[in-house]
Amino acid sequence: MGDCGDAEDEFEDALEVIPAHCKMDLNTALSDSKIAIHLFFNNKFDEAQHILEPWVGTSMYHTIGRSIFLFLEALLTFEQTSIQKASASLKSSIRLCNSYRRKTTLTQSIGNIMKRPNYDSYTPDELHAELCFAEALLLKALLTFIEDETLVSFIRAGIKIRSCYNSYKECNVILSSRSWSENEKSYKEHFESGVRLGIGAFNLANDLITAIKNNQITGIHRVFWKQSNEQGLGELELCYQVPHGLRHVLCVLTMLTYHLVVVYVFSQEEGDLEFCDAALRQQLTLYPNGAWFLYFKGRLEFMRGNVDDAIKWYTASVDSQDSWPQFHHICYWELCWANCVALNWKRAEMYAAELAEQSKWSRTTYNYQRACIMLMRGYNCLSRDELNTVNQLMA
């Protein structure tokens, strides 16, 4: 835990002396990205974007970093303008990453079918271009699901994901077959964390798709890939063991989401709460006011049955930032259910009403939920106005 504190001090010191770069190389880009990630997960969203903005369009990591921020905003808001901005940014990221990738002639491409390319001849920039290209493709494919909800768009997204997965598989081959020199240790750590995160997340997604009994999704799943849940967790655990890797914190978030949310929603199993507790202790040392980790701490306590503690941590997450009010809605949803479990119906109704008023995800669900919660107080305990409200909500 002491190392985490030292790491935070190191970041804080670095933030005070960030120079205006006149030249951008891969080392500097990776360093800037680590600082931006640290700022982002400490709720300093504007400062994080300020680091990335000057080099958007010229540096791979700065460009895809900005795209990730816009992607998260689109995912949280569901606003069409945010979705379009994220889509345009990801297209730019894909083009830029593609320009950094190793160029091959037609003859070389045909030869690569018969013989594996010599990955030892790839420069660090070309290696990371392959990884960033795969990441940008993945985010663009995921964004397609919310850009247009038609079946054609759904199938198109599945095809994009297949292409993206092939890119990750090639990165995995590079990771295992390339001879990494001692001078490339840092490059390898960042590259490995990204590859293992991508492969692991794909396998967990496959497990989730299998669990969802939806014919459209299952059809795409059968056509495209067959991997195991165990392999996905194994890759993520290997990524977790690379603490200095750039994607380490994203790996932690992925594993927390799986063990604290996905497992309980889509299966009859239990998440690994011991791992979650250890991971959250570490991350909350680095990011004590981080809204994401405060939320997951609340979720951990909720899954343990500590409802009062869960409410405390969810509330702390809400209070920790107001730059992204849409993130509050995730906490409101949890607070609504936690108060239901605690039989605090008026408090639960308040959060359901907040969601119905502010969130664009599913107002029908929120209104129905609010009406049910009001009725749980007892029909005879409701005033005439409250009964009218229930009738309006259920109409």
UniProtKB/TrEMBL annotation:
The lineage of its organism: Eukaryota, Metazoa, Ecdysozoa, Arthropoda, Hexapoda. This is Tetratricopeptide repeat protein 39B. It holds the Pfam family Iml2-TPR_39. SUPFAM superfamilies: TPR-like (SSF48452).
